[in-house]
Specification:
By secondary structure, the protein is α+β, with helices and mostly antiparallel strands. It contains eight helices and five strands; from the N terminus they run H-H-H-E-H-H-E-E-H-E-H-E-H. It has a five-stranded mixed β-sheet, with helices on both faces. Helix 7 links the parallel strand 4 and strand 5 (242-246). Helix 5 packs across helix 6 and helix 7 (220-236) packs across helix 8 (249-258). The longest helix is centred in the first third of the chain and has 39 residues, at 2-40.
Length: 259
């Protein structure tokens, strides 16, 4: 009897230890992995790329799933701040970066300049050449913007349609106008045919430049309104040109009235 007990007791200890391990650790880990798969949309193994197929211990599998989920979230965040057509930033990226940059520029008494760039007679371009050609034209303009504004602090975004915005940190009016003219001239030199334009026979842009006074508190809306006022003046005086203005709240009121 005692011999039988001696044989049964170690087996019981093993069973209890296995049960404890299963219920306290392995089962929660499996449930966590299943939950992550559900969140990631990867509960179907066929949807995972081969490099993400889970293998190894539960801990390894959990680490793989967490890494994959983090990578997917990073990709989604990247997509959320980029324009899908041109690959430039969008309004969300602009606001994120300026939330930090504008207060710092005021503290350091740096001027901030912004360029609102509008493609001249773009509706007529689409009507004549088609929307596919219009998209290709916008992509080419985005490439010219990248070639012109190369500093790490330059913020280049597509506001929507045929309108783009560039924010230059620590750039005064002379520098901002110089870069705006360089971008305008570079695009015209590319020579994208535009027979429906009343300006010239190639695609051109009009650029309104807004410049802040060093250290003066201004909002993003104030900056865009002032650049829009300069852009409106470009259109009124023949397009394919650059006009700069200093940021004032009056410009914002005037732009609202024009809209």
């Amino acid at each position: 009897m005692s011999t039988l007990l001696l044989l049964i007791m170690p087996a019981s200890v093993v069973v209890i230890a296995w049960w404890s391990l299963e219920h306290r650790y392995r089962r929660p880990l499996r449930q966590m992995i299943a939950r992550i798969d559900t969140l990631d949309g990867g509960s179907n193994p066929e949807r995972l790329p081969p490099s993400q197929t889970m293998h190894g211990s539960l801990a390894d599998r959990l680490a793989q799933r967490v890494d994959h989920l983090c990578a997917a979230n990073c990709e989604l965040q990247e997509q959320a701040i980029k324009d899908p057509l041109t690959g430039l930033g969008n309004r969300r990226l602009l606001e994120q970066r300026l939330d930090i940059a504008l207060p710092l520029s005021r503290r350091w008494l740096h001027a901030v300049s912004a360029l609102v760039i509008d493609v001249d007679h773009f509706k007529e371009y689409n009507d004549l050449y088609g929307h596919q050609a219009g998209d290709e034209c916008l992509v080419e303009i985005a490439n010219v913007l990248r070639d012109t504004f190369r500093r790490e602090t330059d913020i280049v975004v597509r506001l929507g349609g045929e309108e783009f915005l560039v924010v230059l940190l620590d750039a005064d009016e002379e520098e901002a106008v110089r870069l705006a003219e360089a971008m305008r001239g570079m695009l015209q030199a590319v020579g994208i045919e535009h027979e429906a334009s009343s300006v010239t026979d190639v695609v051109t842009v009009s650029i309104g430049v807004a410049v802040t006074r060093s250290g003066e508190p201004v909002s993003l809306d104030d900056i865009i309104a002032t650049a829009d006022a300069g852009l409106y003046e470009c259109k009124e005086t023949g397009r394919n040109r650059v006009i700069s203005r200093t940021v004032t709240r009056t410009d914002r009121e005037e732009t609202s009235a024009m809209a």
